[in-house]
Amino acid sequence: MKLFLVPILSLIFIYGCAQAPVKEKREQAKTSYNFELKDYLSDNESLNAEVTRIFNTLDDTSIVAQLIMPAVGKYGQTRATIEKHISQRIIGGVLMLNGSKEEFTAMIKDFEATNKQLGALPFLYSADAEPSLVNRKISGSTPVKKAAEIMSLEEVIATTLSIAKDLNEIGINYNFSPVVDVAGNATVGYRGFGSKPDQLIPWSWAFIENTQKQNIIATAKHFPGHGLVSGDTHLSLQSIDGELKEIKNYPALISSGVLSIMVAHIAVVNNEKYNTNGLPATCSDKIVNQLLKKELGFKGLIVTDAMNMGGVVNVPQSASKSISAGCDIILMPVDAAKTHKEILELYRKDKAFKMRVDESAKKVIRMKIALGLISN
What we know:
Order of helices and strands: HHHHEEHEEHEHEHEHEEHEEHEHEHH
Strand content: 5-15%
Largest sheet: 4 strands, parallel
Number of strands: 13
């Protein structure tokens, strides 16, 4: 990596921040702690204090960066592009999208070496490691049955542990799985455990619980429900017409402790309370802030579906709108540098937006501490 050969003063000049003082501040006033992933949702005063301490070491460039997660791999950005983003300190995580187990393992090791060199926080590394997708998304991963082929709860658990073992070996700590949509839509139905309605939630929880016991964040998706929507949000904005019938799948998972929920690029129409006024759910305050956070009481990480999808890509300032709506992580922006600039400019001039960004950044930092990524 040529970056390692650049003197620190040059880095300060090029990227406009003094990395050494930031690193020194982070090393000051350290307290001994030993948090676990299960502590994330707890009211833990020591964890709260540690989040505040780490947050206070960051400049606004790094604070905004915590919310941005581009992809690397066959269908993501090039490795060189991600390395540039890391050197500029404008991202806080990476989605490992279609590649081999070996190359993803090597990438993560190298990316984290650069983060350490820069004094930046470690990353969240994610993957679409669903039973139905993992072997296609990560070649060389242990073969598992697709979700609809799994026949028992015991098989769900065995599959979960197999996937988690591969992810831990690679260095991936964030799984965008399971799909909790009702079976029916060809886009997502085959990817969940919902071919029989009575098994959808208990089997999904078994996947979540056993994933998180292996120190990997699990994610219920696609909120507020994609199973009964016939169109493909990869191509264009789709709509839920009337009642949000799939909301019933989330309360039990939230109360049991799922740590992340992914919001879909689906509009809501003909629903007086939750109409999104032509916007995807990802950009709707009614869906994210009001429904998911306030009514359902979800306190974990809220991640958008990929922001390069047809269901959202034509929305102006979609990243800022998603954050204002209550999302914490902007996944797969078309251009991470432009997205960071968009958010940072608004962060510096809008007090309410700044508070919203700070809230999300602290949630991401809290998760990184609970995962054991930030050492004491």
